[in-house]
């Protein structure tokens, strides 16, 4: 678990570097990746991979919105970096490998899982934007 947290931090921080995020936010982006990975690990015990991905995206949304308000930067900085530990790269590899071995039943199974995980990640981004819009409306009503 500790090793997974370390590598999730490393992957998310590296993604922040690749996306040219300001240096002072590298650690926060890495922490978002650790939160996502931890939420996925806990949720995958009780749920399937697509549902665990969705729940970890919701956790990432909450953390990225809190960080966004704390450091006054867009939440997308933290969301894009934090999502990397749960991108279904291994499922896509397994899909291509099963296809190359002419195991079409397994190909469809892995492919469907990868698509469902991708959809749940997209829903996580949707929740992030919807949550940001709700918070923006609450702030404007609070000022009035």
Automatic annotation (TrEMBL):
Keyword set includes Cell inner membrane: yes
Threonine/Serine exporter ThrE domain: residues covered: 5-129
Membrane spanning residue stretches: 25-43, 75-93, 113-136
Gene Ontology biological-process entries: succinate transport
InterPro entries: ThrE_2, ThrE_Dicarb/AminoAcid_Exp
Cellular component, GO annotation: plasma membrane
Sorted UniProt keywords: Cell inner membrane, Cell membrane, Membrane, Transmembrane, Transmembrane helix
Record membrane topology: Multi-pass membrane protein
Subcellular location: Cell membrane
Entries under Pfam families matching the protein: ThrE_2
Domain of life, source organism: Bacteria
Entry similarity comment: Belongs to the ThrE exporter (TC 2.A.79) family.
Protein's name in the database: Threonine/Serine exporter ThrE domain-containing protein
